[in-house]
Amino acid sequence: MSEARRLHPFTLLFEAMRVARAFVVPALVGGASAGSGDFGRMLVWGVAFLSIPALLAAVAKYLTFRYRLAGEELILDSGVLSKSRRVIPLARVQNIDIQQSALQRIFGVAELSVETAGGNRTEAVLTVLAQEEAQALREELLAQRRRVAGIPEREAAPEATVLARLSTGELAIAGATANEAGLVAALLAGGLQLLGQLRIELPEPDIDPEMLVPGAPGLGIALLVAAAIAFFLVLAWLFSVVGAVLRYYGFTLERTEDELRKRYGLLSRREAIVPLRRVQAIRVEESLLRRPFGLATLKIETAGAAPGQRQRGGAEAFLPLARGREVPRLIAALFGGLDYGELRFLRVHPRARRRAFVRYSVPIVVAAGALALLRGTSWLWLLGLLPLAYGFAHLHYRHLGYAPAAGYVVARGGFLNRITWIVPDRKVQTLHVRQTPFQRRHGLATLVADTAAGEARVVDLAQNDALLLLRELTERVARVRQRAPSPDSGGGENSIHSQADAWENGESPITSPPNSGERWRA
Amino acid sequence: MQSPEVSPEAATVLTAPEPAPRQLDPRVVTLWRAGSLVSTTVMTAVLLIAGALLPFRFPFGWVAAAVATIGVAEALFWPPVKYRAWSFAVRESDLFVSHGVLWRTTSVFPLTRIQHVDTRRGPLERWLGLARLIVYTAGVRGADLEIPGLALAEAEALRDYLAALSGGEDAV
Predict the structure, then answer these.
(1) What DSSP line would sit under A30-56, residue for residue?
(2) What is the ipTM of this complex?
């Protein structure tokens, strides 16, 4: 395909709807609520004045926008007065994503976006393409990319193995156990605000708190408050369940020779393709709610914005819900030679617990002190939180750790949402050992293995162990680079295995050096 | 039961950069002093002008005096401490850097991961004959390294050496 093409003519329709959403609807609502008369007429004219140029601009944009695939590049031309040309070398393409909103599905069109490592935004978005065109263009981009990278061409369609499928029931479980802390907090805040109003209105005429719990009006109000909070929590929870089912409906994760493909969505459908060698890190997230059921979320970090995100940052769920015993198989499918099930996690230094305790108790003590100064009484109960803080500090410490693994940096942390980071040696960009003044006082340090997307960090290692691990990893990273001279062997399947084999035959990865002191078994 | 604690000096030995770690050019102490004196002067001047112009009952004079005292003390005592904490080494396959007085960082930048290298000079640096070396990688956090206070010739030599080593390879 070398001739320049336009987007699908429906672009105009969608642009018109976008303009309508931006101007006309708010204007109508505003006009209706402001009443008719001169003001209403002014509003209509104002909207016309603003929306007609916007519509014309959309038409001009549609007429001038061209895309074409030329040799090793995807070229986008746009611009009415000042022409701009964006050239995207296919060798730099990270992910390709096809997305369809419910409306786009009705019209049989789709949006295709291309990510590269460089930018912090999606590099190219072809907003409205005919569905078949989007699919064909994607396959062509992938084929070209492979040709550019020197990977032998395939005759037939790529053979895909299904790694995982999620049933509606499983999605409901995923939603029910999702750690939607933000949503819950927002609803809680809303609930509390409502309560603020309730307290003003309620006690006098409507409900007599005495009726709820005779003799204890305070308790009556507290019960009402609790009921309201519970109501909002249940509502949030139901939304979470329904949301997960709608969003991930029919979730299918497939692996071809060198790509990861996933499809999902009930109303808006999405198909994302991630080249395997672009995966920088895997994150295994096990929230407090999911741990008892042995469930986890798997996420992958790729350089460039995650599919479907306009902004870079944050990992993309590659599987919203995985049963614990399937996790090792899924990780091995991406990171060959790593047996997640066999990893032995080592604890960090026990003084991590003391640091965490100090961190949690400082605000408590400060608050108690402030209360004591201001009111003289009723501050002692705050100090009763200190044992609780110690308990949390202990849990925090128990969930920190790292695991020695051949060719991978594996770190873990977090009690409420336990996250395990897995970074292959070959994706490590830089290595750091960091110490805050507090860590220095305790002889602790944090080891960080940074990649082009996301990092693995082992917090509060003994300083000595952190430095030894740094040296160990430095050597490993240097060796990986020497062993992988060609640009593409950095991640192809074969090189993963040969590297893992070499590790098994050669030296063990994190050997306990004689002077590293005792290690703490998890 | 706990690992023996190690001093920063011992730490440097532990991680063993084979070529002895290098220090910055001693003139960087002058650079840092001049820099913090300039900012102290600006802050003091702003406070004094505010005190003269604004109709508030606020002890601008005292605050200005405090800022000036702290700023001058910092300019006198802090840069040598900072200087002693800085060391770096260009090793066979990586760039090793250790710096920071309160917040210490020891970093390894593998040479194959370097995307590009810059030298930069501000007016003060030009006056002192110094330059900064900035090394970029594709990492997300702590990805870019800035080595301040190198003699111009050294900075340029390092830049060319590192730039030659960082191949045109797609390192992501």
Answers:
(1) HHHHH-SSHHHHHHHHHHHHHHHHHHH
(2) 0.85
